[in-house]
Amino acid sequence: MLYAAFAVLTLTGAVWLVADWHKDPAGPEFWQVLAADMLMLHGGAAMATLLLLGALIPLHVRRAWRSGRNRLTGPLMVGINAVLIATAFGLYYAGSDLLRRWISDLHTIVGFALPALLLLHVWLGRRGGA
Fold it and tell me: What is the dihedral of CA 35, 37, 43, 47, to 10 degrees?
């Protein structure tokens, strides 16, 4: 379920980014509607992902930490998800345009890095590595 949620977040984030770049108040409404729809789906998927991430703590994180597995990439994954949660909160509530732009860039970069880092985490975990 978590893999599917991350896939939906990545896809809706990418489509939103493209739609946002193409938005033009004088142009067709298609891009504005698409951007709004993708943002709504992205937010809904993020809420579901928060539930799934919360379930990982007792079911996965604690057990893996006690067994000594993924001691490098595990905390990295927790930290990256924490950055995404914090920046999402900032995007929703930040009042400053300058701060919002910085938060948006950070959220985008970290969000698109997450799939590769997740694959690395899973691969190393199955190998019994970092």
Answer: -160
